[in-house]
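Think of the structure tokens as a kind of shorthand, similar to the way a musician reads notation: each symbol stands for something richer, in this case the local conformation of the backbone. In the example below we present two proteins back to back. Begin with the first one, reading the sequence and then the tokens, and try to describe in your own words what changes along the chain.
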Amino acid sequence: MAIEVETITLTGGTAGLQARIRAQADALCALGPTLSEPELDTMVPSRLLSNDEVLVDEPVPLKELITGLAAVEIPAHTQQLLDLLPKSAPPEA
């Protein structure tokens, strides 16, 4: 899963993309502990897409959205950012 150049450009380059993903991760970490169980169990109308493919098109509990973002999306985007780093030269023998 590669990040498109257009996405990087729209977010202000690699530094802007890093800041955006960091801010989203911080927001997720701050949100979870502030909500009660009944709030986390609230059904939220959801339509989740990946590459124009509908993955979810039904209400899901808020806690599942938060958990999914924290467990899947943030790590995946972190890996995408790591993949943008220049490859280091192999160690010399």
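Once you have a description of the first chain, move to the second and do the same.
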Amino acid sequence: MERPIIQINTLYSLPNEKFLHETLRPILKGLNNHFIIILQSTLHDKNIALFNLSDLDKKRKLIKVLNSDLLLKNSLANMVIGFFTDSELNFYLENKKEVNKRINALIQQRILSQIEEFE
């Protein structure tokens, strides 16, 4: 996968913010379809139907699945980590707790913003 380019000025950004904009957001954008497909498959495997629910209830159900299914949560995060360069991986290892929080929050935000994909 070639990383999409996201134009954001990070000249005066803190290291964590720079990593977010230059590394995480482009990788997440590139993996977006994979996230949707994997979550749809997980919902199917767990017999979770969303088609009769309101958007709010769909979001609640998706949040519950994303937060409670540790295998899914770790799989999605590890997909992102797998695209790190060596220097990005070193930054990740030095800031693992914060970066993992960001990865999970960004994945959840990306999925919830595409609720129409889960009909």
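Compare your description with these statements about the second chain. Residues 15-117 form one domain.
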